User: Which sequence fits this backbone?
């Protein structure tokens, strides 16, 4: 009987071996937004891939040419919507640079900016880590991370009335003052959050499945990273201690004590997904240190420079500034003709560069690893597409 | 801000020594120090900046329509990743009727996407780019939105443009 049953052995010659073109996205939960990646595969292997961006393109730069400088701040919120404080600050800093040395930002405003930016960095990294875990199959950290992020968003809601699009940092200072109650709220959060970072670190970083999925995967060599203009945790994950807060301190970052964590290949190869993830975890601790120092040292005083009037007319000139945002260097090139509306605004978005290196580091990886690699880049499409 | 960074001065001096009259304009004391050169000089200068001056990162490429018959301008912000405080911007102006600049994607890989974006939004053609297609706008989009004479279309594929 058994000898007559049809054979179940697959003849290798019958298998289809040609390459397949796989379309991932633009609506795909693992692409963190509307990113489309065309993947050329050979079975489970990625031979090549090409990211297609632009699905969220609103031509932010064109908008800025038609609204006033103050109104443009509002549009910057919508770039990297997870670190809107940084966007506000980056844009305002470019506008402030046009005024030259005459414009001095009040001390209190400088401290408030640092507090907000660092809290926002923690919120952004929490989301990055939470969703990254979920990409790989760990759902629990996501829930915890979102719970903590919510606390930060509540603080922001108290400060400026918004949870995501703050429009809080304005040219010359900040929009509203923060009172003692809010400072207490922030201190309480710092005291609460410190031990929590260790807990989440323990939850994910030592998880064997997580480590196996991220170590040795998506290795980004230093040279390639620099060549492609990668910055932020992506570059630091490859072992380059480049952080504008240390290298070119803007605002008052030179007054705070903090370290710049870099990848070391502790679980796999230097510059792999695990290193990029680990840099973010450690950066949360450093940000917390900065917030604690800033809350302690914040002076009383003005929150906005009187040099900047309600109708902002930046002096004629051109300026390029950059800040260290959660995802890397956010640069703004502004051209002013001395009018209320800026002549040209160009935004150098960190995610735009970080995602451009994707084909380079995912060749030869498995399709499932491609998800891990995209997640480790932590891109925000609002900023890529602008 | 206004004080001159000695590293930038040294960098500009090195470029001056090698290129001399090919650098058509320089301003090192302004808010944004810059050098200006002709499009034909650019690939050579880019190579020099990267190999000899350690400018290993092309941080930003901004395309600007100067308007009023002044043509288009590309502003390259290059910087060094190792000696973190050094960086300079290079400005290159091209006429509106023939906006061509040689591509530098062979010098900095990141120039690939930068140049595509600049072509897409400002309409500067980068000669020698391996795949100069639109990156942010749709493939069949007409015109370059950041040109000062750009008129936004009334309709796109039958979808009404209700921007006021």
Assistant:
């Amino acid at each position: 009987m058994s000898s007559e049953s049809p054979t179940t052995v697959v003849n290798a010659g019958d298998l289809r071996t040609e390459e397949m073109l796989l379309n991932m996205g633009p609506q795909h939960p693992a692409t963190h937004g509307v990113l489309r990646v065309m993947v050329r595969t050979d079975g489970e292997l990625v031979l090549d891939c090409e990211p297609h961006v632009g699905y969220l393109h609103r031509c932010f730069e064109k908008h800025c040419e038609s609204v006033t400088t103050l109104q443009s701040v509002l549009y910057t919120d919508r770039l990297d919507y997870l670190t809107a404080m940084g966007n506000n600050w980056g844009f305002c800093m470019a506008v402030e640079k046009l005024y030259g040395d005459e414009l001095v930002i009040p001390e209190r405003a400088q401290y408030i900016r640092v507090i907000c930016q660092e809290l926002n960095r923690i919120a952004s990294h929490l989301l990055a880590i939470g969703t990254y875990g979920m990409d790989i199959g760990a759902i629990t950290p996501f829930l915890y991370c979102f719970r903590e992020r919510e606390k930060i968003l509540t603080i922001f809601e108290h400060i400026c009335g918004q949870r995501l699009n703050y429009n809080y940092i304005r040219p010359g200072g900040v929009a509203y003052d923060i009172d003692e109650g809010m400072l207490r709220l922030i201190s309480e959060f710092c005291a609460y959050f410190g031990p929590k970072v260790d807990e989440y670190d323990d939850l994910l970083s030592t998880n064997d499945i997580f480590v196996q999925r991220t170590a040795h995967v998506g290795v980004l060599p230093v040279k390639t990273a620099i060549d492609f203009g990668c910055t932020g945790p992506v570059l630091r994950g490859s072992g380059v201690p480049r952080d504008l807060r240390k290298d070119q301190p803007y605002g008052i970052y030179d007054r705070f004590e903090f370290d710049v964590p870099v990848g070391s290949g502790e679980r796999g190869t230097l510059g792999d997904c695990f290193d990029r993830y680990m840099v973010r975890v450690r950066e949360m601790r450093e940000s917390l240190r900065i917030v604690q120092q800033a809350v302690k040292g914040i002076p009383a005083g003005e929150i906005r420079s009187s040099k900047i009037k309600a109708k902002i007319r930046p002096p004629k000139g051109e300026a390029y500034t950059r800040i260290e945002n959660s995802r890397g260097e956010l640069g703004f090139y502004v051209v002013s003709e001395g009018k209320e509306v800026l002549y040209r605004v160009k935004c150098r978005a960190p995610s735009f560069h970080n995602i451009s290196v994707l084909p380079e580091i995912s060749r030869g990886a498995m399709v499932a690893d491609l998800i891990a690699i995209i997640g480790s880049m932590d891109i925000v499409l609002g900023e890529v597409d602008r | 801000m206004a004080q001159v960074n000695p590293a930038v001065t040294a960098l500009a001096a090195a470029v001056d020594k090698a290129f001399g009259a090919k650098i058509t304009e320089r301003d090192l004391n302004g808010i944004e120090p810059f050098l200006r050169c002709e499009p034909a000089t650019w690939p050579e200068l880019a190579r020099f900046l990267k190999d000899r001056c350690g400018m290993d990162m092309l941080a930003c490429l901004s395309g600007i329509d100067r308007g009023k018959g002044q043509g288009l301008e590309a502003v390259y912000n290059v910087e060094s990743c190792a000696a973190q405080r050094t960086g300079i911007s290079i400005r290159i102006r091209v006429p509106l009727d023939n906006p061509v600049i040689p591509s530098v994607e062979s010098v900095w890989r990141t120039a690939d996407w930068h140049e595509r974006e600049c072509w897409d939004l400002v309409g500067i053609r980068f000669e020698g780019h391996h795949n100069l297609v639109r990156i942010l706008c749709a493939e069949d989009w007409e015109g370059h939105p950041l040109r000062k004479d750009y008129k936004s279309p009334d309709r796109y594929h039958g979808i009404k443009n209700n921007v006021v």
